[in-house]
Amino acid sequence: MSPRSVDRQIAAFLAKYSPEVQAEARAARRILRVLMPTATEMVYDNYNALVFGFAPGDRPSEAILSLALFPRRVTLCFLQGAALKNPDGLLKGSGRTVRNIPLKSAADLKTSQIRSLMEQAIRLAKIPLPERGSGRTVIKSVSAKQRPRRPK
Asked: Beta-strand (E) ranges in the chain?
């Protein structure tokens, strides 16, 4: 897919959400792209959520961070979050690997506590991000059946 057609498809995915969630998602994606300029952004329009995963390559198992869009919020997910030091208790979840932070706003990503967690996750990644180059965006999957994307 060309970058232009990928952008159009992402715009169509986002259009299913409220204007507020769309705006927060766009702002959060920009912040993560600046933080991880060489990452591959993998997009999944799944049954439960629209997900933007950031990884060193095309393998989903190598993803470091992701944004999950729900009808009322955007959540930052740490795919190896259980291994992170969490001194401020921001990371939520009790599974064996993933932790998350529901965002009040994309600006939360600029706070020192969340920035520190993101940088820690990048440093501890199983496979490091490429040192050079520019990232790209890839549509990985689109579910035919999906939960409603806007609040009832």
From this structure: 40-45, 50-55, 65-69, 74-78, 99-103, 136-142
Strands 65-69 and 74-78 come out as antiparallel
Model confidence at 66, in pLDDT bands (50, 70, 90)? very high
pTM given for the model: 0.95
Single out the residue of 101, 111, 116 nearest to residue 68, CA to CA: 101
Helix, strand, coil percent content, the chain, rounded in steps of 5? 35, 25, 45
**What would the DSSP string read from start to end of 107-141?**
GGGGSHHHHHHHHHHHHT-SSPPPSSS--EEEEEE
Tell me how far apart the alpha carbons of residues 33 and 27 are, in angstroms, rounded to a whole number: 10
List pLDDT tens digits, range 100-117. Answer: 999 999 999 999 999 999
Q: What count of Cα atoms within 13 Å lies in the side-chain half-sphere of residue 6?
A: 14
> Is the backbone of residue 73 left (phi > 0), alpha (psi -120 to 50) or beta?
beta
d(CA 47, CA 87) in angstroms, rounded, equals: 33
